[in-house]
Amino acid sequence: MPWLILLFAGLLEVGWAVGLKYTDGFSRPLPTILTVAAMLASIALLGLAMKELPLGTAYAIWTGIGAVGTVLAGILLFGEALSPLRLCSVLLIVAGLVGLKLAS
């Protein structure tokens, strides 16, 4: 169960990172409220997952899900470039996340 909680925490991190783009410097009320809510929920779920998972593993996987998800969201939502080097870098992050999961 802590791994599932951590997954949702990471997905919410992607949500708030993308949400920051829509807040327009926190000048748009609804995107700002949703972004802050996603931030709080993400941190709360991370804290719950850390009750049973090692600190370093949980935090690294949380940030890794956020990083990979945000890169993919940027490509899909904002037309950011998908170069071979960028794709390779994302795959290296994913490989590291899988390694951490297997080592836990």
TrEMBL record:
Report membrane topology.
Multi-pass membrane protein
Q: Which InterPro entries match?
A: Small_drug/metabolite_transptr, Small_multidrug_res
Which top-rank group of organisms is this from? Bacteria
Please list every transmembrane segment annotated in the UniProt record, as residue ranges. Answer: 33-50, 57-78, 84-103
Q: Which UniProt keywords apply?
A: Cell membrane, Membrane, Transmembrane, Transmembrane helix, Transport
Q: Does the keyword Secreted apply?
A: no
- Any idea where this protein resides? Cell membrane
Keyword Protein biosynthesis part of the UniProt annotation: no
Q: What is its main location?
A: membrane
Short name of one Pfam family for this protein?
Multi_Drug_Res
The UniProt family comment states: Belongs to the drug/metabolite transporter (DMT) superfamily. Small multidrug resistance (SMR) (TC 2.A.7.1) family. Gdx/SugE subfamily.
| Official protein name in the record | Guanidinium exporter
Which gene produces this protein? sugE
